[in-house]
Amino acid sequence: MTMTKQPAESAEKESACCARHDDHVGRSDAEPPEPARERVNRRWNEVLQETRVTQTGVQILFGFLLSVAFTPLFRELETPDKVIYVMTVVFGASATGALIAPVSIHRFLSGQRMKDEVVAAAGRLMVCGMVLLALTIGCTLLLILRFVVPGVLAEVLVGGVMLWFGLCWYVLPLLLRRKAARRAEREQA
Question: What dihedral angle (degrees, nearest 10) is formed by the CA atoms of 127, 183, 25, 118?
Fold first, then answer.
C-alpha cells in the first residue's frame, strides 16, 4: 500500500492523532520527530507482526475446538458443557474473523491511499480479536477443567486465569500508556 501526499488539514489531524499514541515513547530529546509517513508505515508493520502472532494461536485453538465435536466423549457431555462448548466455538470463530480481517481490509484497500484508515481499523479489530481470543481461551479452559477438577474449583481457576489475562493484556498496557502520557506532560511543562 502506498501513501501519497494528504491535504494539509488531513495530515495535521493524522499527525496529532498518531503523535498522541507514539511520541515520547522510547525517544530521547535529541532524536528528531518521526515524519507522518514513516509513522504510519511503522504502525502498519507493527500491526502485521501482531496479527501474525495472534492468528497462529487462534487458528490452532479453533482447529482443536472443531475436532472435539467428533470425539466419542463429546456425546457424553451434559447440556451445560455443550453450551460452554458452543460458546467457545462461536468465540473462536469470531476471534479468527477479527484477527484475519486486517489482511482482507489491506487487500481490498491496497493502493487506495487509505493507509491511515487501514491502520486505525486494523488496530480496533486486533483489540476486538484479543478480547474474543481471551474469551475463547477462558471457555476452553473451563470446559477442560470441569472434567479434571472437582466442584467450583474449575470456575475459580478460570476466573484467576481470566483476571491474569485482563491484567497482562489490558490493564498493564493502559497503565504504561498513562505513565508515558504523564511523562510527556512533564517534559512539555
Answer: 40
What is the C-alpha to C-alpha distance for residues 143 and 77, in angstroms, rounded to an integer?
A: 10
Mean pLDDT of the chain, nearest integer = 83
Q: How far apart are the C-alpha atoms of 22 and 152, rounded to whole Å?
A: 44
Q: How far is residue 93's CA from residue 157's CA, in Å, rounded to a whole number? A: 24
- Is 165's pLDDT higher than 90? yes
As given in the structure block, the three cell numbers for residue 67 are 475436532
Please answer whether residues 116 and 14 qualify as being in contact, where contact means their C-beta atoms are separated by less than 8 angstroms: yes
Q: What secondary structure letter does DSSP report for 170?
A: I
Query: Rounded distance, CA 8 to CA 128, Å?
Result: 32
Q: Indicate the pTM of the whole model.
A: 0.75
